[in-house]
Specification:
The chain is built from eight helices and ten strands. It is 29% helix and 21% strand. With 274 residues, the protein is of the alpha+beta class. It has a four-stranded mixed sheet, covered by helices on one side. A four-stranded antiparallel sheet has the order 4-5-7-6, with helices on one face. Strands 2-3 form a two-stranded antiparallel ribbon.
Length: 274
Amino acid sequence: MNLSINATWTTCDPHATSYVQDRVILWQMYNGLMQYNELTGTADFDLATSYDVSEDGMTYTFKLRDDVYFHNGDKMNVSDVAFSIMRATDPNMAISQYGTNIVSATAIDGTTVEVQLACAYAPFITNCCQLFILSEREVTEQGDKFGVEISTAGTGPYKLTYLDNDAKISLEAFDKYYKGEASIKYVNFYPITDSAAGLISFESGPDANAELKASLSAEFQQALALPDALGTLVFHSQLTETSEAAQIAEEFHSSLRRADLTLTAAHKNGLPTS
């Protein structure tokens, strides 16, 4: 599947950017302890299986999944989680606001991490959705090059296989993803900063169903006129099993295994969904 974003991708370091066009892709590569559910408005468990909160609301104790692997082949451990949480709180990191009030993250045993807050802070669990977990080994080994070179430090449904920030970012389904391998094997993102060029690219892309393309194109053109239209997700449809736009969108949703990207397409770019 080929998609476009409306700005150049700046980094593959999920702690170093808060830009929407970056995080649309990063959401496919990384996981947090929790994952925000756009449909219910709640934080669901992701790499964590449970958590307990102390009576004073200042200590959170997370139990972790034991079947999670990084794209580099390493198994995720408690050290990776503690390292990632504290790294994200560094004031030099773009997402450090999500680590507000975090004092420490400590490995208690092989499957338990304890996070200490400076004070009770209600948004903490929701903020955990943005604190992506990284491979401590890979981040340490790459040093200053992390975020610039291809990263395999994530645990998400897709791994990064090609990186040209200005031209193309390619992802491939990760066969060890803990929820199972995604059914769409390859996804390419093309930075297209000019919306008219994006429309031309969409209309000239290969599609076995001209009727469907015409329908989506009309929706797309309507969305371009909206003042709050964000990233442009453009289908060069390779899904030929059905001509129903809603079913294609549903396949897109279930394949990428994330509500975030689907809803971005639906609510900000006018693409039909179920």
